[in-house]
Amino acid sequence: MRRLPLLLAAFACHAPEPAVPPIATYEVYAGADLVLTVRAEPGPLTSTAPPPPDGHVPSHPFLSAGAHDAASESQLRAILDQSTDVEDFLARLTAAGFRVERLGAMP
Amino acid sequence: MHQDRRTRAPEAATGADRSAQGRLGNAALQERLGQQAGEQTASSGDEAWTRGRPLKVANPAPTQPGRQERTVLGVRILGTDVSPSALDACERFVTLTLGTRPDVQERLADAGVALVIVPRGRPMTELPEFSALRGGTTFDGRPWEQVRGAGGMRASGGMWAIAVPEENLVQVEPDNDSYGSGYSIGLHEFAHTIQSKGLGRAERREITALYEARRAAGGPWTEAYGASNDQEYFAQATNCFFGENGRVGNNGAEWLRTNDRPMFDFLVRLYGAPPEAQPAR
Known about the structure:
heterodimer, A: 107 residues, alpha+beta, six-stranded mixed sheet, 32% helix, globular, B: 281 residues, alpha/beta, 2 domains, five-stranded mixed sheet, 5 strands, 43% helix, disordered C terminus
């Protein structure tokens, strides 16, 4: 048991640094119109509508996203509510006719 | 529309003159806006602009029955049964934001961007441009029937329609403006469309990078809402830049210059110098 702290310390010294997961970001288009930007991390959902007067911004458990097109918002939210994770959401968007473009990992 | 855009756009200029000239537009426009708004100016319309006069018109002209329309720097402004002063207020923030950037004007005109004023007391979804929203919800879960304002959607004829509530453009009694004086919904919504339709890919990416850098730095933000994502960051920073973020968050170009210099510099490149920094002409 006395050796355990030494072993742990040795492991810590030689273990690779945990990579910081890049935050994947996606743009979603309906035709030529950008309708949604998605970040693959939990966070707020925002609308093209003005900020809620009460200041309450809902948070989502597996992504954050901001809408760009009022007409698509209801459908996008319905698809999100059916989705189980980010990949599932993006797949459902594609199946519904939206085009999804990955922006690349953000620093 | 292209002919109109050319005649209303500021003439080419360089250096420091460019932002002032673009912001001020032409003298006739200045004079007309000042007169229609029924506001007192110290000695000239130009001075009023230099002081960052609030966008909301305090003493609006009476409601004018029927449809009104004008085109400013390629952006259509539409209103039915509203005060002409509401159109003036829209004209002001269009001129403020687009005056120095013909390329942004061009993209917005090509996208068919129109500001549609929602008459006070009338649900936004009753207007034909926004009737498709009936029965639906915003992405953050609010029924559209209860919302007054939208950052844009495709309407008939290829129009990209932005909803702006009249009661936030002009002071009316009873005051049913949920945001009160000092916060411009129209400017916020128009900023969303500038970002999504007016800027090129490089500048959109730059806003995203600015947002990421701000997150990495831990703020400060104009307020929590402005930290939500790069769209709200940009729109709220725009409101702050023009002193139209009152009662919502930190306000004024000086706050932005002191607390978020990279975004301040970006907005100066986009909009020209802020109103407070404009030298009187």
